[in-house]
């Protein structure tokens, strides 16, 4: 075959012009002639090698696979300029091209711009489009008319939100296929899965479920295990079986079996609480270790209530376990009583049933309840903060914050006011302020003894009975670190309606 002499048109002039992409063409490449024969690389291959760091083998393979056959720099440069003019950085463009080199040979105004316009019409800002496309450049591959729009309309039907729909679709394989999500949704609906559960799947684990090619097999498998497709547990179970590979599933089964569970016990726990198979192996071992070695209880108890595995070690499992263990040791709770029921109550009910109810033991129980120093042998903060938060939840109050300043305008302390009136302020609970709501001198004294950084004062206002403890001065914010997230209440008092009557 005759040699054909090809000059890289425009490259030399581009390299010396003010183009922001002049540096894309190395001098030794842009000023030379290339001779192309049947054995020499094409212009596209050379372009990928010199401008995007492809190896010769990878560039040749990519050029063939994606049918990249441009013979001059005009087309790829127009693509690069298109992205650059819309806010994409050089690293972002390089990353996109390396993942999807077909971009260099497309017409950006025909294939890419309409998709940008579609996202803009759905409320996605230009900066978010840059973030979206640079992170998930595969969204540019499918047809707008045949794939993106039908999939968007399908997902939006369940989520009813442009923001949630975009979030669900981005980064998912099913985005590139118009038929698969529609088919999978149809399979779920035909098997009785409610729309609310389909929405949950789309919102939280759309990639695992809607990119599945075996959705029918998974649905039948779960129905065979006794799951009701109309229940929310079915959706969670479907997430579990589609998310975990066979090897990963086996690893989690073995983690449970290490603590004495059988295969049947694992399946029973999965039926009761499908999320147990989504719990990390590390968390499984931590919970089991505390349950068996610290509390001295049978690991098989958790088969009856595997939802405990989903609870927080620091906030629920450790403090409640220590309280129940103390009650059993003192003979205040029958040994035959349920081991897991104390872990499923809300905070307020637990404190009422297992702490406040035992008046003579309340002080010790509260001290146990605030202990959080077991996790993997590491000592955690077991100070007043946990107790204050627990008591706040138990009473059912939220508190307002007032930052007080001295004459030098330096912050001196903060006051935390409680919500007093249930009907006026809209909370459910016993009512009363933090101290008077405790119900007994023992509880008040325990509260103050455990929280030495709190100072108690009496206040009165139009909302308070004289002599009631309606405010607590806090000299350090560490006692109540979440104060910034608590809404201020009782504006009349905050504006100066609360007058100090005296110290106690």
Automatic annotation (TrEMBL):
The lineage of its organism: Eukaryota, Viridiplantae, Streptophyta, Embryophyta, Tracheophyta. Gene3D superfamilies: Transcription termination factor 3, mitochondrial (1.25.70.10). Belongs to the mTERF family. The keyword Transit peptide applies. GO terms for biological process: DNA-templated transcription termination. Keywords: Transcription, Transcription regulation, Transcription termination, Transit peptide. GO terms for molecular function: nucleic acid binding. Pfam families: mTERF. It comes from Sphenostylis stenocarpa. InterPro entries: MTERF (IPR003690), MTERF_sf (IPR038538). This is Mitochondrial transcription termination factor.
